[in-house]
Amino acid sequence: MPEMLEGVIVNYRIGPKTQRPRECLIRPLGLDLKRAGSLIGWRVGWPAEEPRIRGKVLSLHGRRGVLRVRFERGVPGQALGSRVRLYKRGET
Fold first, then answer.
1. How many domains does the chain have?
2. Helix, strand, or coil here: 26?
3. What distance in Å separates the CA atoms of residue 58 and residue 61, rounded to the nearest whole number?
4. Long-range contacts made by residues 89-92, C-beta under 8 angstroms, separation at least 24?
5. Stated pTM of the model
6. Is residue 17 part of a domain?
7. Could you please report the per-residue DSSP string of 43-77?
8. Tens of pLDDT along 32-83?
9. How many other β-carbons are positioned within 10 Å of the β-carbon of residue 34?
10. Quick check: bond before 76 cis, omega within 30?
11. Domain region containing 73
């Protein structure tokens, strides 16, 4: 598995009456669905070019390889649909 990957922010984690801007759903690019579970514990940085907001992959969301990520602070709405950087802990 590569040391660094990219992904796309799909949406915030939402419920029937709540929206959590600190938690996002991310689809990793270039990775098959069965290997997405191995990314749990990896770090995430947004935006991909120069990360200013960092987070951590908590778990899988559903059966299609989407990751649930919690960021240090809320992610702005402009981030939806943009790319993030996924890297192993300790990398930048």
1. 1
2. strand
3. 10
4. 89/41, 89/42, 89/43, 91/3, 91/4, 91/43
5. 0.91
6. yes
7. EEEESSSS--EEEEEEEEETTTTEEEEEESSPPPG
8. 888 999 999 999 999 999 999 999 999 999 999 999 999 999 999 999 999 9
9. 8
10. no
11. 4-87
Instruction: Classify residue 63 as exposed, middle or buried by CB count within 10 Å of its CB (0-12, 13-18, 19+).
Output: exposed
83 within domain boundaries: yes
In contact, 58 and 69? CB cutoff 8 Å: yes
CB neighbourhood size of 49 (10 A): 8
| One-letter amino acid for residue 68 of the chain | R
Give a yes or no: residue 9 inside a domain: yes
Residue that is written with structure tokens 């192993």 in the block: 88
92 within some domain? no
Phi, psi of 90, rounded to the nearest 5 degrees: 95, -15
Task: Look up the CATH number of the domain holding residue 76.
Answer: 2.40.10.190
Cβ distance 25 to 10 under 8 Å?
yes
